[in-house]
Structures
1.
Amino acid sequence: MDQLVAMKAFCRVVETGGFTSAADALDMPKATVSKIVGELEGHLRIRLLNRTTRSVQVTKEGAIYYERASVWLQQLPDIDGVFDERVKPRGRLAVHTSSWVASEVLVPALPRFQEEYPELEIELSVSDRSVHLIREGADCAIRGGELNDQALISRSLGTSRWITAASPKYLEQHGVPLHPDDLTDGHMLIHYRLARTGRPTAFRFERGDNRVAVTGKSFLSINESNSHLAAGIAGLGVLQSFEWKLRAAIQDGRLVPVLTEWTRPSHPFHILYPSNRYMSTRLRVFIDWMVKVFAELERGQQTP
């Protein structure tokens, strides 16, 4: 038995919740993963997993073994490189983020990161839905919005104010709204639909003590951030989003801000990683780099 391979297989079964998902992640046949984990249990003389036809449950002993083994496996690339005179982090780093952050912030900046850390391999997963980092095998995630997962450690990447906007053509056809209530009469809204719930988000406005939430009529609702922006530029309605996402389209005239005297609390961004995950050198340098990238984005924020 190759104990290192067996430890990796067992940890991935725990993280993904089953042998089928673990086999897919490890690119191994399911039967092989099951056999390897069985050999590990035989070597340790304890049962790590309780198996049924429908589920796999970690035993008390398995949870203890996973906690120790997973930390050691996460440290392994750093241990391997301890005598590397270049002191450059290396190995795989799995990152999850939304489509807009990936296409407009992270990927355009990655050439600089690659130049500084050429031995790192970034595995980027892109989706607007929130994922379970451990089950997905992700080292970290870049997320916008309020945090609600206490099992994750977060580091702030900054905040962006909200803007309501529409294309010049749309405003020419439908008029410029002067009050949030105007959006309920004669206007179409482009709702962003949360991937977590499938429900469209309301437009929210604040001015002094006034608080207004508008749902309005909608021809189109979207659960993906880049398409949400594209719909606004195409003139399909009024959209509301954070300034970082709309900035380029506003600067070149494809979108025009409206209701600028009304605001709402700024949209926060964080980089997150599991609280039980060892802070490897590769994760640390990536987080520090992302903080710098978003600081550049925040400094470039302009008032239209």
Note: The domain at 162-265 is CATH 3.40.190.10 (D-Maltodextrin-Binding Protein; domain 2).
2.
Amino acid sequence: MSDMNWYVVHTYSGYEKKVKDTIDQTIRNRKDLQDQILEVRIPLQEVIEVKDGVKKNVAKKMFPGYVLVHMINNTSTWYVIRNTRGVTGFVGQVQGSDPIPLTDAELRKLGIYEEKEREDIQDIPIEIDFEIGDMVEIVYGALQDHRGIVKDINMNKQTVTIETEIFQDFVNDVEIGFLDVKKV
């Protein structure tokens, strides 16, 4: 299973769930693919929305138009993924070459790693230069360049919850990894 890697697949906007469901169904129908394509994910992020004064937890797509596929890259799997309705291609693939898998650092930022690895990550001491009430700027991800106030710091998960204004008068609490924010 050492040839197993995570790949990013570009889809038509709004087709992420349909693409995931279609690939999952293809895997169920073709027994030869079950040990070659292990998982298809739509990266989601929990956010708290405030609408009409009511707070509500909502799962939002981290990267609209993209799905992640954990697979062995070979002719069969490439063909199945590439010819799934709604897929436009692999991210990072130059014509005539193999798609480029995600790195370990990229997987950690997305929260994709084994439980053993998660324990190892938590054992690494991290020093942060911000505290509750500080203004921080998001430096990576969909909300890059947004600023917000630190509301909570979770050392175990190595995340910070910040209150940020996405649109005018629309405040969200967003949980972001330590490495994705900097003190302003």
Note: The longest strand covers residues 159-167.
3.
Amino acid sequence: MRTMLLKFSLTIYVLLLFTFNSKAQDSNTKLNLNKLSEQFLTIIKNGENTNDIRTRLYNISLEDLENSLKTDTQKLAFWVNIYNAYIQVVLSENPELYNDKRSFFKKEQIPIAGRSVSFEKIEHGIIRKSQWPLGLGLVRKWFPNKFERKLRVDKRDYRVHFALNCGAKDCPPVAIYEADRLNEQFDTGTTRYLKRTSDYDAEKNEVVVTSLFNWFRGDFGCKKGVRKILRQQNIIPTTKGIDLVYQNYDWSLDLENWIEL
């Protein structure tokens, strides 16, 4: 009798363990958040309804975000996709919100992990590692909240500025970023954007560049770092003695500006 009970108990234990592992595997499959963010943008690009995927993003937990997005590459691919996706969603539904841009970016209107977060929180808090929005990339926030501390990247990557699309005409176009190809995509996107927005004048010994280099100067290493980037992109012939001229940014609303990277 004791042997039979032991065998029965062992059988029940194995079945429970199998069920638990199966559920855990299913959960991990469902919580591939990078794939979910790619799917979000694909649905938008195809003109399909996004309600289901927006609900799924709202119903995930903070722990889900932490466990699924462990590396900076995973975090950047996910959050850039989410930011760009919700720019398309929110401004397509309510374009008048763009009339007050400061309020628009500060407003907590992105439903994710049981709360509403702002575009500002995603960009400056998570993607740029708790930078003060008006600090030019030179001043960090003093007291970022728990959500931001747990999810932000470990290291800033200036190339995000050529990947984030804020809805304006002069913003970088929207690509669908994949974690396992992110470095390649960021490099390609950076090159394309800078080639398009930069204009070197040898006679004047100056180069006209995007205002992004000015607004986030600390992310780029200030003027010295900007010249180095431009030289690496073969936009200027040398980093010595060339003046930077920041062009005006065209804030006209321009949605559905897609690119394949």
Note: Residues 2-30 form the longest helix (29 residues).
